[in-house]
Amino acid sequence: MGRIMGLVPSRFLTLLAHLVVVITLFWSRDSNIQACLPLTFTPEEYEKHDIQLVAALSVTLGLFAVELAGFFSGVSMFNSTQSLISIGAHCSASVALSFFIFERWECTTYWYIFVFCRYSNIQYLGMSALPAVTEMALFISVFGLKKKPF
Prior knowledge:
Blueprint: H1 2-27, H2 29-35, H3 43-73, H4 80-102, H5 109-114, H6 129-144
Helix pairs in contact: 1-3, 1-4, 2-3, 3-6, 4-6
Protein backbone atom coordinates (compact mmCIF):
# COMPACT_ATOMS: atom_id res chain seq x y z
CA MET A 1 0.00 0.00 0.00
CA GLY A 2 2.94 2.35 0.62
CA ARG A 3 4.06 2.19 -2.99
CA ILE A 4 0.62 3.17 -4.24
CA MET A 5 0.52 6.08 -1.82
CA GLY A 6 3.89 7.24 -3.18
CA LEU A 7 2.51 7.27 -6.71
CA VAL A 8 -0.23 9.77 -5.90
CA PRO A 9 2.05 12.73 -5.10
CA SER A 10 4.42 11.78 -7.93
CA ARG A 11 1.57 11.76 -10.41
CA PHE A 12 0.24 15.07 -9.12
CA LEU A 13 3.66 16.73 -9.37
CA THR A 14 4.36 15.48 -12.89
CA LEU A 15 0.89 16.58 -14.01
CA LEU A 16 1.52 20.04 -12.60
CA ALA A 17 5.01 20.22 -14.10
CA HIS A 18 3.67 19.38 -17.54
CA LEU A 19 0.81 21.85 -17.11
CA VAL A 20 3.22 24.64 -16.11
CA VAL A 21 5.43 23.94 -19.13
CA VAL A 22 2.42 24.04 -21.49
CA ILE A 23 1.18 27.32 -19.99
CA THR A 24 4.70 28.75 -20.29
CA LEU A 25 4.71 27.67 -23.92
CA PHE A 26 1.49 29.62 -24.48
CA TRP A 27 3.26 32.75 -23.26
CA SER A 28 6.54 32.21 -25.12
CA ARG A 29 5.43 30.63 -28.38
CA ASP A 30 6.73 33.53 -30.49
CA SER A 31 10.31 32.24 -30.74
CA ASN A 32 9.13 28.74 -31.69
CA ILE A 33 6.86 30.14 -34.39
CA GLN A 34 9.69 32.25 -35.81
CA ALA A 35 11.91 29.15 -35.88
CA CYS A 36 9.62 27.46 -38.39
CA LEU A 37 9.37 30.50 -40.68
CA PRO A 38 11.87 31.74 -43.27
CA LEU A 39 13.95 34.83 -42.52
CA THR A 40 11.49 37.01 -44.40
CA PHE A 41 7.89 36.08 -43.74
CA THR A 42 4.51 37.69 -44.08
CA PRO A 43 2.12 38.33 -41.22
CA GLU A 44 -0.24 35.78 -42.78
CA GLU A 45 2.40 33.05 -42.55
CA TYR A 46 3.09 33.96 -38.93
CA GLU A 47 -0.62 33.94 -38.13
CA LYS A 48 -1.07 30.52 -39.79
CA HIS A 49 1.69 28.91 -37.70
CA ASP A 50 0.48 30.69 -34.56
CA ILE A 51 -3.02 29.28 -35.02
CA GLN A 52 -1.62 25.78 -35.55
CA LEU A 53 0.48 25.92 -32.37
CA VAL A 54 -2.37 27.40 -30.32
CA ALA A 55 -4.66 24.63 -31.58
CA ALA A 56 -2.14 21.96 -30.55
CA LEU A 57 -1.72 23.54 -27.12
CA SER A 58 -5.50 23.82 -26.72
CA VAL A 59 -5.93 20.11 -27.46
CA THR A 60 -3.30 19.41 -24.82
CA LEU A 61 -5.12 21.56 -22.26
CA GLY A 62 -8.38 19.79 -23.05
CA LEU A 63 -6.75 16.44 -22.37
CA PHE A 64 -5.35 17.87 -19.14
CA ALA A 65 -8.89 18.73 -18.09
CA VAL A 66 -9.96 15.12 -18.63
CA GLU A 67 -7.05 13.73 -16.66
CA LEU A 68 -7.32 16.22 -13.81
CA ALA A 69 -11.06 15.56 -13.54
CA GLY A 70 -10.42 11.86 -13.14
CA PHE A 71 -7.61 12.44 -10.70
CA PHE A 72 -9.44 14.91 -8.45
CA SER A 73 -12.72 12.98 -8.56
CA GLY A 74 -10.90 9.95 -7.18
CA VAL A 75 -11.71 7.72 -10.12
CA SER A 76 -8.06 7.06 -10.87
CA MET A 77 -6.22 8.56 -7.93
CA PHE A 78 -5.22 5.21 -6.44
CA ASN A 79 -5.04 3.20 -9.67
CA SER A 80 -1.38 2.24 -9.92
CA THR A 81 -1.48 1.43 -13.65
CA GLN A 82 -2.98 4.79 -14.54
CA SER A 83 -0.54 6.52 -12.21
CA LEU A 84 2.48 4.88 -13.84
CA ILE A 85 1.25 5.68 -17.36
CA SER A 86 0.57 9.27 -16.32
CA ILE A 87 3.90 9.73 -14.54
CA GLY A 88 5.91 8.34 -17.44
CA ALA A 89 4.06 10.31 -20.11
CA HIS A 90 3.93 13.64 -18.29
CA CYS A 91 7.50 13.46 -17.01
CA SER A 92 8.94 12.79 -20.46
CA ALA A 93 6.65 15.38 -22.04
CA SER A 94 7.77 17.98 -19.48
CA VAL A 95 11.42 17.36 -20.30
CA ALA A 96 10.82 17.37 -24.07
CA LEU A 97 8.73 20.54 -23.96
CA SER A 98 11.35 22.25 -21.81
CA PHE A 99 13.86 21.58 -24.58
CA PHE A 100 11.24 22.74 -27.08
CA ILE A 101 11.05 26.11 -25.33
CA PHE A 102 14.71 26.66 -24.45
CA GLU A 103 16.21 25.39 -27.70
CA ARG A 104 13.55 27.20 -29.78
CA TRP A 105 12.60 24.16 -31.82
CA GLU A 106 10.30 24.53 -34.81
CA CYS A 107 6.61 24.72 -34.01
CA THR A 108 5.87 21.56 -35.98
CA THR A 109 8.07 19.63 -33.54
CA TYR A 110 5.31 19.98 -30.95
CA TRP A 111 3.25 17.40 -32.82
CA TYR A 112 6.17 14.96 -32.72
CA ILE A 113 6.35 15.39 -28.96
CA PHE A 114 2.57 14.97 -28.75
CA VAL A 115 2.70 11.75 -30.82
CA PHE A 116 5.81 10.33 -29.11
CA CYS A 117 4.12 7.07 -28.05
CA ARG A 118 3.31 6.23 -31.65
CA TYR A 119 4.13 2.54 -31.37
CA SER A 120 2.32 1.88 -28.11
CA ASN A 121 -0.76 -0.32 -27.82
CA ILE A 122 -3.00 2.60 -28.74
CA GLN A 123 -1.48 3.73 -32.02
CA TYR A 124 -1.01 7.44 -32.81
CA LEU A 125 -1.78 8.66 -29.31
CA GLY A 126 0.92 10.58 -27.55
CA MET A 127 2.26 11.93 -24.31
CA SER A 128 -0.87 13.91 -23.55
CA ALA A 129 -3.39 11.63 -25.22
CA LEU A 130 -2.47 8.21 -23.82
CA PRO A 131 -3.09 9.10 -20.15
CA ALA A 132 -6.32 10.90 -21.09
CA VAL A 133 -7.59 7.90 -23.07
CA THR A 134 -6.88 5.53 -20.19
CA GLU A 135 -8.54 8.05 -17.87
CA MET A 136 -11.67 8.00 -20.04
CA ALA A 137 -11.62 4.19 -19.94
CA LEU A 138 -11.55 4.37 -16.13
CA PHE A 139 -14.49 6.84 -16.19
CA ILE A 140 -16.48 4.37 -18.29
CA SER A 141 -15.48 1.50 -16.02
CA VAL A 142 -16.44 3.31 -12.81
CA PHE A 143 -19.54 5.24 -13.86
CA GLY A 144 -20.82 3.09 -16.72
CA LEU A 145 -20.01 -0.42 -15.57
CA LYS A 146 -20.06 0.36 -11.82
CA LYS A 147 -16.68 -1.29 -11.19
CA LYS A 148 -14.14 -0.17 -8.61
CA PRO A 149 -11.18 1.74 -10.12
CA PHE A 150 -8.58 -0.31 -8.18
